[in-house]
Amino acid sequence: MVETKKPANTDQADQNKKQDGPTFTIQRIYIKDVSYEAPGAPAVFKEEWKPEVNVDLQTKTDPLEENLYDVTLHITVTVKMADKTAFLIEVHQSGIFTINGFPKDQLGHALGSLCPSILYPYAREAISDIVTRGGFPQLLLAPVNFDALYMQHLEQQKQTETGK
What is the mean pLDDT of the chain? Predict the structure, then answer.
């Protein structure tokens, strides 16, 4: 068996090439704000549980420094029973991300789709936990295709620009 070795400096050159490409790093994931209200309690606990659930999703991006971004996923869930609000929960799940070396269109995709996709499971867990602690049945939000939402947002922007 013949073994070939790379020169030591080749490994260093390979590492430098990897570092020159785009980088995406999660610095921190945290809850920025949480609000929970149960205006229908305790009367709602006497009724048969047939909820109407409305979910609103929004994202916001704030540049902190060069290549450092704070992305916040805002989720508001309103649960009604017979036109009365059983509970309302709002979670602002945030993350600090280092994003470097991406072309502008890919940076937009990373901030508008990739980052919210990372934050969503944390927000989903927080919502489920708070709702259960509020005395209601567990609420598991359905998965969300942030790629599709981002593409829809881009399409709406195009229509707005061409409509002017």
Answer: 89
